[in-house]
Amino acid sequence: MSARYFLQLVAGALAIRATSSQQASVAEGLVQSELSQMQQLRSVVDEQRYLVSDLTAAAQLACHKLWQVDAFVTIQDFGSGESGENMLNALKELGFAPQVVYDIGANNGASAELLLELWGADGSGSSMALHSFEPVPPTYTALEQRLTKLVKGSPVSGMSTLDYPLREYRTSFGSVTLHNAAVSDSDGEMEIFDGLDKIANRGKRSAWATLAKKGTSYGTVKTLTVDNLVRHGLPAPDLVKIDTEGWDYMTLVGMQETLAAQKITVLLFEFSHDTWPRSKNDEATLENAQALLDKYGYDSYLIGDSFHIQLNGGLWADMYEQLRWGNVVAIRRGAPFQLGIDCIDPHRPALKSLPYPCGAKQQCA
User: Fold this and answer.
1) Which domains does the chain have, with CATH numbers?
2) How far apart are CA 246 and CA 306, in angstroms?
3) Strands 308-310 and 266-271, how do they pair?
4) Residue-wise over 185-205: b if at least 16 C-beta within 10 A, else e?
5) Bridge-based pairing state of the strands 239-242 and 165-171
6) 3-state helix, strand, coil in the chain (%, to 5)
7) Which residue(s) pair with 271 in the sheet?
8) Cα dihedral angle (182, 289, 325, 72), rounded to 10 degrees?
9) What is the C-alpha to C-alpha distance for residues 209 and 211, in angstroms, rounded to an integer?
10) Least confident stretch, 12-21, 85-94, 215-224
């Protein structure tokens, strides 16, 4: 083989090699381009998936909210005097068994009697400590007379370390303690009123006595907060019932430490568009109440006779603020029985006239 021919062979081989390398480079570039396009497409698909998920959640929330407003307008059964009692019965049916109960605004003892029937003197064997708070002297006397007959016991103490009259009764199912004091947003003393428009009943027992300024003054009474009661050694409550004729929001403000510690499981309070504005500041609104409770991990529901409306979680509607009177229940988020309350109709026949269309609560069926 001549040197010239050998060099031609070598040159041809190098040319073929260069061509193959170029083709490989082109092919690699095409593959990389395809991969990049696939990644871009995957990113677009993921963004679309997230968008669809967000839109679905938003649509479901909007549907839920519209249903609630429609339900509120169509069936205004939220002013029933039995709604609070029905809720307490429902809580028991769902397995709630409080060991410590604060009955704030006990009046003449009707609510205390119901609480004892449900979780005390019913023979269920449960142990419950009931603390009833009533500041007005003539009403406190009526409360004491009623519960003394009910528990059939003698008081074991007559004065608390908090410097206000207190009587404790030991029973076979626990204890009943009567506190002649008001529960508010601060400790001290406040003037309390009979809540009546007429002066003719001055000095008589009133079912509408309030720390809000309405009617004739009974004089000053001792005030305490739930937080300070717990700090002074009173057991933290599992259940709090509040009926203070317009002072319910201020009572909630005074228990924020206890709420933040998640010591309370259920709160039941009364709302009235007519009485709440008489509280000592402009913050006493139902919207602010549900926001405060939501902040500390509680879901709030406007209690109806046939179904309940959730107020927090993006479901608030301004029209609820105009409710003349109603009861609200707040439940610690994640409580084992919450699903039963969150369902449209946990313990009564299904609400046929307003079927829930949003698909979010199928687990309730």
Assistant:
1) 74-364 (3.40.50.150)
2) 25
3) unpaired
4) bebeebebbbbbeeeeeeeeb
5) unpaired
6) 40, 20, 40
7) 326
8) -160
9) 7
10) 12-21
DSSP 8-state symbol, 84: H
d(CA 77, CA 82): 10
Q: Kindly state the tokens that stand for 69.
A: 């407003």
Q: For residue 240, give the nearest of 212, 263, 211, 222 by alpha carbon.
A: 263
Residue 293's closest CA among 235, 323, 333?
Answer: 333
Q: Residue for token digits 């009259």? A: 165
Q: Give me the residue label for tokens 């608030």.
A: 316
- What mean pLDDT is predicted for residues 217-228? 88
Is residue 227 within 8 Å of residue 259, measured between CB atoms? no
As given in the structure block, the two tokens for residue 42 are 């995957």
Question: What are the strands of the beta sheet with 182-183, ordered from one edge?
Answer: 182-183, 217-224, 188-193
Q: Please identify which residue in the block is written with the tokens 């309940």.
A: 308
Structure tokens at 127: 């142990």
Average pLDDT taken over every residue of the chain: 76
Write the pLDDT tens digit of every residue in 80-91.
566 788 889 889
* Nearest one of 270, 250, 262 to 329, comparing CA atoms: 270
Phi and psi at 236, nearest 5°, equal -65, 140
DSSP H helical ranges for the chain: 3-74, 83-93, 110-119, 137-151, 226-231, 248-253, 256-260, 286-295, 338-342
Rounded CA-CA distance 76/158 in Å is 45
